[in-house]
Amino acid sequence: MTQEHLKRVLVTGANGFQGGAVARWLAAQGHDVRGLVRDEAKAAAAGGGFTPVRGDLADPGTLRAAFRGATHAVVVMPLEYDLDTVTGYARNVAEAAHEAGVRRIVLNTNTPVPGETTRYAGFETRRRAEEVLRAGTVPVTVVRPPVYLENLFSPWNGPAIVNDGVLAYPLPEGQRVAWMSHEDLAKVAARALDDDVPAGQVLHVGGADVLTGPELAAVFGQALGREVRYLPLEVAQFEQGLAGLLGPEAAAGVAGIYHHVGEGQAPDLLCPRPAAVEEALGIRLTPAIEWVKAQPWEHWARTGA
Asked: Which residues form the NmrA-like domain (predicted)?
């Protein structure tokens, strides 16, 4: 990579799945990447080619220090759904980025955002983060992904898929979704940092395939060589299980997205047109079957969890 194309990028949430994927991808492309983390030892142990920098979105001092010298930033909000808290995070980022002379921010909302105001914090806190950052002095490109395939390679989904042939998820059977991988998110975020992609856009992104639950189950069945059926979970049941992992407030924030979709108010919210994303950014998105075949599903068969 030539020196003029080298970016010094700060990636927030680099110990998380989404931020970590972005930080690793950018580092692999040769950029100088700092990952904002709360636990430097955890980040160092995980590796990935980026430099962990301890900081907190709620602490303006550590955030200013982390941004110092950065030319670009990729920001993802943590699983926090208090409106005032998220507003404060966004203001701190905007001010630190301005002070550092950052040239562009890519904000990953980690969810689509409906055009109309809703009663769900999962959407409205992300809408507020967008508003605050876009009102600042640094150009912002917003990336709005749908649902991640990695949600299925997890302790609460993987074993049931492998051992029982059941893909259970809190979406109606007929809901169409452009299921997206974390690696494709990283490709999109990295590309959105480039100067030839106009800043100020809101990019509605997704994966290569738009599939209903049963169609996705058929993809799993084809990849795994066994019958897999789709089971739509009750959102309340999903939220209850998630609360044991994330706590009730974060679980309610995440589940609100599925409540809204399940109410039938936003049939197209989770299914942006994949070809438009590939054409606009010049990238190749990963077909769902490729992603499924690449995962080490035997892990769940071994654990029997």
From this structure: 7-246
- Exposed e or buried b for every residue in 236-252, given b needs 16+ CB within 10 A? eebbeebbeeeeeebbb
**pLDDT tens across 277-300, in order?**
888 899 999 999 999 999 999 989
pLDDT tens digits, residue range 139-179? 999 999 999 999 999 988 999 999 999 999 999 999 999 99
Does residue 214 form part of some domain? no
**CATH code at position 104:** 3.40.50.720
Q: Which domain holds residue 79?
A: 3-146+181-206+267-285
Tens digit of each residue's pLDDT (9 = 90 or more) over 188-230: 999 999 999 999 999 999 999 999 999 999 999 999 999 999 9
